[in-house]
Task: inverse folding
């Protein structure tokens, strides 16, 4: 039998060993807490029994949130030396407080990713049974902090996980029920949402690894009969500007299904953007539905589409939708006077018009759809036509026989006072990934009540074209290059301090691109003045303007006097011919232009004050720039001047 001294030595060694183990455990726990960034860890009321381990309270604080547990019971039943150790966990109360997240430095989308292997590994480490009697999660929402109140029950059997979360909102009850089955090569999810014991949404989804990567299949159905409860619950997460939406109607039906082939690798947003497969979706909204950041949507739609490597094409599309109480941020950059109060969108299958055929790239692979898009309000518009939509790659769409009518009220824009507008455009358009092609046809015209800027005032403006054509090169949805050309007719009643009030007309071709714009045509007015005008503006060289006056025969009238207020009041010309041409250049970054004018007359006759003039021939040149004015009278020959006594002939030249 061991002696007393031997027992003392054994006890001393055991105490020392326990002390060393305690110290090691304490140091290991400290290092673990430091590594996991746990700032505070406290527990109270630890006790052992034949049933398991009980902890009255456990709390910890982490940069990502604070957690507090009450009455944690870890049952010995099913205890294992491998994770998750305890298979039966019961928690009376769980409180989780998540902090406000700072605004991200950029608008980049966080790319969350997970693989089937990771999901299977996580599920394998969960206990077989977890019950939380009282669940309280406080987290940031739109303008304040919100709470999720309810309870949770988790059950696991083999590779299948069953989770039920009950949430309380005011006097209403929301139940989320999910069944997840996960294996290293396959995962399947069954998810449902019930409100007050009535099922509202159901989702069946699965991801299966195959020879090409991963196949994702899903079916979603919804019969929303408790929409008022859902809206009330969701409104707390919306900004205050949108949380005051009208009450949701009592019913709506939605349905969607997809079958997508994904590349191998962890599931993330980038992988979904390159998916191939099919999608079908439909919705029926018999009453206006408030949609956050959009407005109140009513109607129905039915869509079937297919994708190849992330490029989506519509196989069929039918829609009849109305949008009212449009959210202010939905249409950006539009003056408030032009903002529509309601939008109507209708599209349905039709036949290709006999007199209109798709472009060569869509022949034999386009689905014709009848399109109608209408806006109502102080400003209104309506677009109608046949839309040829590609049903195979490469994607493309074409508007055939399009008609756009629009009216707008008067409004102000960047110092311009713009009057009421009425427009009617006949157009054809084509767009794909590489180009945009838009052409106006006969009957296209715009009329503007008035246009005022600084001291220039134009009224009753009219513009028309029978072939204005725009072409653009595209890349990733942005313009690389564009060109606009075609005939253009303009007219307006113009008022200016240097002009006699009357109507002016322009007729001629227009060409424009990113670098320059040019006009070449005829400018005339009601007085009979007519100019051949060429104007060009270049971003590199500035403005260049050339005008040639069509020869005037003053015996039939003097359009100069009837066009310009600067014409001397005492001068009356009623005979002879007059020619002139002028040019103006304004270089880039120059404030004042360079102007040249050459005026030639033959046999002018008339009266200046009380002096009769006969046989006036002249040639005059004028040049002015930033530094000087230069005037040169090459010749002046006056056959006779008669102030009461005939004088002449007179000759004069100089500079």
Result:
């Amino acid at each position: 039998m061991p002696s007393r001294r031997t027992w003392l030595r054994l006890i001393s060694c055991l105490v020392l060993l326990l002390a060393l183990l305690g110290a090691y455990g304490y140091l290991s726990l400290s290092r673990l807490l430091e590594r996991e960034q746990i700032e505070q860890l406290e527990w109270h009321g630890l006790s052992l029994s034949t049933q398991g381990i009980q902890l009255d309270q456990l709390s910890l604080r982490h940069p990502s949130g604070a957690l507090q547990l009450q009455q944690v019971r870890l049952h010995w039943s099913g205890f294992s030396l491998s994770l998750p150790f305890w298979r039966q966990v019961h928690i009376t109360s769980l409180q989780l407080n998540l902090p406000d997240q700072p605004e991200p430095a950029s608008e980049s989308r966080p790319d969350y990713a997970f693989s089937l292997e990771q999901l299977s590994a996580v599920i394998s480490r969960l206990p077989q049974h977890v019950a939380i009697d009282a669940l309280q999660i406080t987290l940031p929402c739109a303008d304040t902090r919100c709470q999720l109140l309810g309870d949770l029950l988790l059950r696991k059997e083999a590779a299948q996980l069953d989770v039920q979360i009950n949430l309380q909102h005011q006097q209403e009850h929301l139940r989320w029920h999910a069944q997840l089955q996960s294996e290293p090569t396959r995962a399947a999810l069954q998810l449902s949402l019930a409100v007050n014991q009535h099922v509202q949404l159901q989702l069946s989804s699965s991801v299966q690894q195959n020879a090409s990567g991963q196949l994702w299949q899903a079916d979603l159905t919804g019969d929303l009969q408790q929409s008022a409860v859902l809206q009330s619950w969701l409104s707390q997460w919306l900004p205050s500007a949108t949380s005051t939406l009208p009450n949701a109607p009592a019913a709506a039906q939605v349905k969607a299904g997809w079958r997508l082939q994904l590349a191998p690798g962890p599931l993330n947003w980038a992988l979904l953007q390159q998916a191939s497969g099919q999608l079908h979706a439909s919705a029926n909204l018999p009453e206006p539905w408030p949609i956050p950041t959009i407005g109140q949507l009513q109607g129905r739609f039915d869509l079937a589409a297919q994708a190849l490597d992330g490029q989506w094409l519509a196989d069929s599309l039918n829609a009849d939708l109305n949008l009212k109480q449009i959210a202010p941020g939905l249409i950006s950059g539009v003056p408030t006077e032009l903002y529509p109060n309601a939008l109507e969108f209708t599209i349905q299958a039709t036949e290709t018009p006999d007199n209109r055929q798709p472009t060569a790239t869509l022949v034999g692979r386009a689905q014709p759809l009848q399109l109608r898009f209408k806006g109502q309000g102080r400003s209104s518009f309506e677009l109608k036509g046949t839309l040829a939509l590609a049903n195979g790659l490469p994607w493309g769409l074409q508007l055939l026989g399009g008609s756009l009518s629009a009216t707008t009220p008067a409004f102000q824009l960047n110092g311009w006072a713009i009057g009421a507008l009425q427009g009617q455009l006949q157009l054809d358009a084509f767009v794909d990934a590489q180009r945009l092609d838009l052409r106006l046809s006969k009957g296209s015209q715009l009329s503007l009540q008035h246009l005022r800027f600084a001291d220039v005032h134009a009224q009753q403006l009219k513009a028309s074209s029978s072939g204005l054509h725009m072409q653009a090169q595209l890349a990733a949805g942005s313009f690389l290059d564009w060109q606009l050309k075609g005939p253009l007719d303009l007219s307006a009643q113009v008022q200016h301090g240097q002009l006699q009030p009357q109507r002016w007309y322009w007729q001629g071709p227009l060409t424009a691109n990113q670098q320059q714009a040019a006009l070449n045509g005829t400018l005339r007015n009601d007085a009979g003045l007519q100019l051949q005008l060429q104007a060009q503006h270049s971003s590199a060289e500035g403005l260049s303007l050339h005008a040639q006056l069509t020869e005037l025969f003053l015996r039939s009238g003097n359009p100069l006097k009837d066009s310009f207020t600067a014409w001397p009041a005492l001068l009356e010309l009623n005979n002879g011919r007059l020619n002139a041409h002028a040019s103006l250049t304004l270089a880039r970054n120059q404030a004042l232009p360079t102007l040249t004018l050459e005026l030639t007359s033959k046999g002018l006759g008339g009266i200046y004050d009380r002096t009769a003039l006969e046989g006036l021939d002249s040639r005059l040149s004028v040049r002015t720039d930033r530094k000087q004015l230069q005037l040169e009278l090459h010749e002046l020959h006056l056959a006779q001047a008669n102030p009461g006594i005939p004088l002449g002939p007179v000759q004069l030249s100089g500079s």
Confidence is low (pLDDT under 50) at residues 21-29, 104-109. Residues 356 and 400 are 6 Å apart (CA to CA). The helical segments are 4-35, 116-124, 227-235, 269-273.
